[in-house]
Structure formats: structure tokens, C-alpha cells
Amino acid sequence: MYSQKVMEHFMNPRNVGSLDEANGVGEVGNAVCGDIMHIEIEVEDNIIQDIKFKTFGCAAAIATSSMVTEMVKGKTLEEAERITNRTVAEALDGLPPIKMHCSNLAADALHEAIKDYMARQEKS
Amino acid sequence: MREIYMDHSATTPVDREAFEAMIPYYTNEYGNPSSVHAKGRAARKALEKARDQVAALINADSREIFFTSGGTEADNQAIISYMLSNAARGNHLITSAIEHHAVLETCEYLRKNGFELTVLPVNSLGIVEPEVLRKAIRPETALVTIMHANNEIGTVQPIEELAAITHEFGAVFHTDAVQTAGKLPIDVKRMGIDMLSISSHKLHGPKGAGCLYLKKGTKAGNILYGGPQESKKRAGTENIPGIVGFGQAAELAAGRMTETSEYLNRLATKLREGIMADIPHTIPTGSLDNRVPGSVSVCFEFVEGESILLMLDSYGVMASSGSACTSGSLEPSHVLLAIGLPHETAHGSLRLTLGKDNTEEDVDFVLEILPKIIGNLRKMSPLSGKGGSN
Ligand SMILES: Cc1ncc(COP(=O)(O)O)c(C=O)c1O
């Protein structure tokens, strides 16, 4: 039911963990519905220098998290903001329809992390 | 890669002997048992032999066995036809919160069509406490349907007590014995069962066959109308090869029951205890004392069931889960919620159901890889807490 790309990212997820130097953190989902995605970014000179994730959820949740970290590492914040849940799913050669909704929130978590980074910049 | 099948509650491989018994009815003996000629008579003979074999498994009379297409149809027939045939007696029926969908959805269908339904809660082990039934049952209760053992958490119900209470109030007792037939001794007479459902493919028979036991005198009827097959209780030309395989599998299961259940209990205990010892934050589900042989069910905190299944599958180990992602809905299994588990715990469910062909090496292999799999998924989980647990 999953594409080869989804399975590949699920079995070998990239960028798992957390960052000591994170300056933006985003989290979406909740344990009740069965998916939580937590993303940490380290931004410098408007560029996402490093990114890590932790995810509780099914294979689709883990694969989309892994994919989104790979897609935005080294990219500018503007480029990262243009990434949507849909483009993440497309990069994975699609997801089963039932997974499009609940397990495809990785881009949202990324956007939350960027928002957090912006808010921190404004404060300092 | 070696295949380790540990999903016998979902379905089982067909016994070689049962399969071989079926072959002639696909090839030379293709007759219709309703026909008068030689091929028809041969099919009729095979049908009646299978009926005897299945009846013997549950200490029923052969005339009390009505073949169906499986467990789902037997459940539907018992519940729908009994309620429709006994509307004058009462329009109230009782079931439990942990029934298979084949029962729950059927009861729900009746409720939507004007019947009154009570769904009994279960305790944290998944047991329907007899006193809870006693409080819910009423003079207008016509039917109580409570499964013999649950397919997800393995708990076996106190059927005799539940049936006795049902009879005190003049109602009829049905049980879905799909998960126990061929695994635990069933004596419909001693246990006081009026109607009982069995599915062939859960006891090493072929898919697409099953039966409904109707105690002599029980006023239940059809849900399929047409020809006079199965003493006019189930229309449609009989699935002779399937029924022959079912009968043979039932006889084989009866013959090896004691030995197999001891073996499965031993393997399952080793598996469960190994898991509990090696993987922290693990919650066993269901009753440990009253359990289907070979069933191990647990919930791992901080991880999700589908991920566990796919990781196990990558090692050739086949199991199942009651998590939302595997149920095809957004909710974890109704059984896990009914025993009081919070959603986040229920999402981490894993069910390993062993069969007679599993070996001690299979169990050892799972005990070797499962702690690693859970450990890796927990390292990835934001719920595991700082530093992760395990
Ligand atoms: C408890 C229970 N009842 C009923 C069924 C349905 O049986 P069948 O697949 O033969 O329709 C199953 C099998 O999934 C089951 O586990």
C-alpha cells in the first residue's frame, strides 16, 4: 500500500533526533489521534542549516517527517515556507488516500518551527 | 528470508489433510447435493459427513448444524433471524462492547430498525461480568449475544454463567465461538448455548465456510431466502469443497486439541514473559488466566502499531495491531478502548497469535528483534521523553 520511497524513508529515516542549537521548534498533532510530529530547526543567515525531527505515528507519519527534513535542509526560509503537505506527499510518490489527512502533517510542523523562529527573532 | 506467521487470529493455513479431502469435490465429484443422480448423492454424502464432524467438535447433534459462508453470516443469521422470529417475545437484545464487528454491526442494524439494544461494558481484562448482565436483562429481552473469546485481546468469557442468567430470564443465548472452536473444548449442552457461530478458516479449514449451531427447538430462521437447502434454513447451493475441508479440519482440530493448546500456551507464555521482561513500558492486554491458547496481546507506550507491524514484516514476522492506522479508521480498536486504555496507549497495540506450526525458534527470533524495533521507534518518538526510555 505504500510506495517504495515511503518504505525507504520509513526504514531509514533521515535527520532523527534533536538539536542543541535549535532556534525554532514546531510540533503538530496529538497522541489521542495517533500522530505527533516534532521538528527542530537551526537557522542562520536566513538558511535552515540543520533540522531534526521526532515523530510518533505510522509509517506515513515517519516517512513524511523524514522527507520534509531532507527537502528543506540548506534551503532559505522562503523556500521552506513554500513546501506543503501535498508537495511532501508527492516527493514520496504519493500516500494512500486515508493517510493524506492524519499522517501528512510534516510540512505543518516545519511551518510551526519557522513561525517559532520568527517570533524569537522579533523578541531579541 | 524466513517467514514467521503469527497472525492466526486473522486466519490460518489450511491443514494438508483437509485440503486433500477437498480436491475430489473440485474435480470429479462436482455434483450438487440436491441432485438425485450418483454425483448428487456423492456430494450429499460428503455434506452429511462434514456435518457429523463439525457437530462432534461441539457435542451437538448433526441436525443442529447449519452450514453458512463463514462466521460473519452465522452471526448475522443468529441475531437477525432470531430477533425477527421472536418479535412477539420482546424486542430487546443485549451484546457486549468487545464483540467482533460481525456481531456489533448486526446488532446496530437491528437498533436502527426499531429494536432496543443494550451494549454491556467489560472490565479492564475484557470480561463481561455476569452481574452486569443480570442488571441489564429484562422481561422483554429476547436474545443475549456474547462472544466466547475475543479476537484481539484473547479473553475468554464466563459463558456458562452468562448463559445461565440469560435462561433465568427466558431469553436465548448466542455466542460467537469463531476464535475458540477447535482451540478450547466446547460442549454446547453443558455450557447451555442455544446458538453458536464457527468459521472454518480460523481452525485450519478453508475460507468461505462456517456454520451456525441452532439448538433443537430454537426459533431462528433464514436471512437468505430461496431453495430448501440446509433444512430450509439457508438457501443456496452448498459450498461442498469448502464444507468438506471445514469438516475435516474440525475433526483434526478436535483430535489434537489438548496437545496443541498445551503447546500453544507454553509458547505464548514464553513470548509474553520475554516481551514483558525485555521491553519496559509494556502493558499486557486481556486476561492472563482465561485466555485463548497462543494469543499474546500487548501495548507498547510511545510508539504506534502500524510502524511496529511494518518493522516486524521487514524481518518476515507477520502480526497485527488494533491501532487506528491499521483499522482503516481514525480510532483505535473499540476493544482496546472498551477495556479502558487511553487512546495513546491503544495506538501502540501489537497482537501475536501463534499456531501449531510455530516453533520455539520463531518465538526466540521475535524476542530477539522486537526489543530492538521498539527501542528504535521510541528513539524516534517525541513521547518517549528526554533521553528516551529504552
Ligand atoms: C470473533 C470473530 N467473529 C467473526 C469473524 C468473522 O468470520 P468470517 O471471516 O468467517 O466471516 C471473525 C474473523 O475475523 C472473528 O474473529
Low-confidence stretches of chain A: none
**Ligand identities:** pyridoxal-5'-phosphate
What is the H/E order of chain A? HEEEHHHHH
CATH architecture of chain A, by name, is: Alpha-Beta Complex
The rounded distance between the terminal residues' Cα atoms of chain A is 47 Å
CATH superfamily of the largest domain in chain B: Type I PLP-dependent aspartate aminotransferase-like (Major domain)
Strand content of chain A: 15-25%
Q: CATH topology of chain A, what is it called?
A: Sufe protein. Chain: A
Gyration radius of chain A (Cα, Å) is 14 Å
Q: What value does the average pLDDT of chain B take? A: 96
**C-alpha termini separation of chain B:** 27 Å
**Helix- and strand-based class of chain B?**
alpha/beta
> Which architecture of the largest domain in chain B would the CATH scheme give at its second level?
3-Layer(aba) Sandwich
Morphology call of chain A: globular
**Fraction of residues of chain A in helices?**
40-55%
Explain the overall architecture.
The complex is a heterodimer of chains A (124) and B (390). Chain A has 124 residues and is an alpha+beta fold. Chain A has a single domain (4-123), classed as Sufe protein. Chain: A (Alpha-Beta Complex). Helices cover 48% and strands 22% of the residues of chain A. Chain A has six helices and three strands, in the order H-E-E-E-H-H-H-H-H. Chain A has helices spanning 4-11, 59-72, 77-82, 85-91, 97-102, 106-123, and strands at residues 24-30, 35-44, 47-56. In chain A, helix 1 packs across helix 2 (59-72) and helix 2 packs across helix 4 (85-91). The termini of chain A are far apart. The mean pLDDT of chain A is 94. With 390 residues, chain B is of the alpha/beta class. Chain B contains 14 helices and twelve strands. Chain B has helices at residues 16-26, 38-57, 71-85, 101-112, 130-136, 159-168, 188-191, 229-232, 240-278, 305-314, 324-327, 334-338, 343-346, 360-379, and strands at residues 4-5, 65-68, 92-96, 116-120, 141-145, 172-176, 195-199, 210-214, 282-284, 295-300, 317-318, 349-353. In chain B, the strands form three sheets. Chain B has a seven-stranded mixed sheet with strand order 2-8-7-6-5-3-4, sandwiched between helices. The A-B interface holds A 7, 10-11, 13, 16, 27, 31-38, 54-62, 98-99, 102-103 and B 302-307, 310-311, 314, 323-325, 328, 330, 332, 342-344, 347, 379-383. Pyridoxal-5'-phosphate binds next to helix 3 of chain B.
